[in-house]
């Protein structure tokens, strides 16, 4: 389970950095590397989204554990 958390965190960081680049410089790094809306880039976008959902769920369970 620890490996899953690490992978999810890496994907969320990659996604956050990518969105930062899009917002600041209008540059989509994932699209530049893997092609705009190619199958591989769509898989990466999906994995980043799923990782964000996973991190949000485990963060809520950690945050609210004491209550």
List the helices and strands and how they pair.
Layout (H helix, E strand, L loop, with lengths): L1 H24 L3 H6 L4 H25 L4
Helix pairs in contact: 1-3
Could you explain how this protein is built, in words?
With 67 residues, the chain is mainly α. The chain has one domain (2-63). It is built from three helices and no strands. It has helices spanning 2-25, 29-34, 39-63. The longest helix is centred in the C-terminal third of the chain and has 25 residues, at 39-63. The chain starts with a helix and ends with a helix.
What is the structural class? mainly alpha
The radius of gyration over CA amounts to 14 Å
Count of the domains: 1
Distance between the termini: 24 Å
Q: In percent, how much strand structure appears in the residues?
A: under 5%
Average pLDDT reading: 92
Spell the H/E element sequence. HHH
**Would you report the number of β strands?**
0
Helix share, percent:
over 70%
- Quaternary state reads single chain
User: What about the largest sheet?
Assistant: none
Count the helices. How many?
A: 3
Write down the overall geometry.
Answer: elongated
Low-pLDDT windows of residues: none
């Amino acid at each position: 389970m620890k490996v899953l958390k690490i992978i999810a965190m890496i994907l969320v960081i990659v996604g956050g950095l990518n969105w930062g680049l899009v917002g600041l410089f209008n540059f989509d790094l994932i699209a530049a590397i893997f092609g705009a809306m190619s199958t591989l880039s769509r898989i990466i976008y999906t994995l980043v989204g799923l990782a964000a959902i996973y991190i949000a769920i485990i963060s809520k369970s950690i945050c609210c554990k004491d209550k």
